[in-house]
Design a protein that fits this description.
By secondary structure, the chain is an alpha+beta fold. Helices cover 35% and strands 10% of the residues. Pfam families: PCYCGC.
Length: 159
């Protein structure tokens, strides 16, 4: 998967050092989960959730890239503890709860507050842009974070 903007790769790289505070402003089409995460449905991956309006540009760019990369990130585990605390199944769920058959997405604001989630997403997307296979990306992420003190999400291996 290639992105049309070369600056996207540069901005995604900046996200490695991003740590942010989330915005929890509620709107009619948003709802909080039991874990406290804010979720919002949009009609496509081209429409970003309103909870990103108050976020830094780097985080908005990561969310935009994730929206276009759900087929990658659904195979990549997260190592921030969100599997247990928020019920996430993969790194994708830190940003997108689900992709519906009609193309709509249910976004999750968990990634706006978690540097580990952002870093894993950026690493995986960047590796895919470099031509790496899903298996290579998964092996890299697993090895990079295997010493983590938290339990990773129970993400199945890529097929």
């Amino acid at each position: 998967m290639k992105f049309p903007y070369k600056s996207t790769l540069i901005m995604l790289s900046l996200a490695f050092v991003v740590s942010a505070c989330g915005s929890n402003k509620e709107q009619v089409h948003q709802e909080h989960t039991m874990s406290g995460d804010l979720q919002e449905k949009t009609t496509s991956n081209r429409i970003m959730p309103s909870f990103l309006k108050e976020q830094p540009e780097e985080i908005r760019m990561v969310y935009e890239a994730v929206g276009k990369s759900t087929e990658i990130l659904k195979w990549i585990p997260c190592f921030c503890g969100c599997g247990e605390s928020a019920g996430h199944a993969s790194n994708m769920n830190c940003f997108v709860k689900e992709v519906n058959k009609d193309g709509s997405l249910v976004w999750d604001d968990h990634g706006t507050r978690c540097g580990v989630c952002l870093q894993i997403a950026v690493q995986a997307i960047k590796m895919k842009q470099e031509g790496k296979s899903l298996k290579e990306i998964r092996v890299f992420i697993d090895k990079t974070y295997e010493q983590s003190t938290v339990k990773p999400t129970a993400t199945p291996l890529p097929m």
